[in-house]
Amino acid sequence: MTLDRALALITSAEVGDVLQLALTGDPSARLPGFRFELDKVHHRPGADVSAVYRIWYDLPSAQARTEEWLGLTSAAVTEGVATLVHNDLVLRAWRHPADPRLPGLVSACNAEVVGGWLGAPVELETLAYRPLRRAVLAARGSRPGFVKVLRPDKAPGLAERQRLLHAAGVAPGVIGEPEPGVVISEVAEGRSLAQALVAWPDDPTQLPSPQSLVALLDALPAEAVRLHRRGSWSDRIDFHADGAIAALPELRDEIVAVREELKRLLIAAPVGPVVPTHGDFYEANIFTVDGRATSVIDVDSVGPGRRDDDLACLLGHVAVLPHLSPQHYSRVAEVVEQWRADFELRVHPASLRARTAAVILSLVAGADTATALARLDLARAWLVRAQQAL
Question: How far is residue 113's CA from residue 101's CA, in Å, rounded to a whole number?
Answer without folding.
Answer: 20
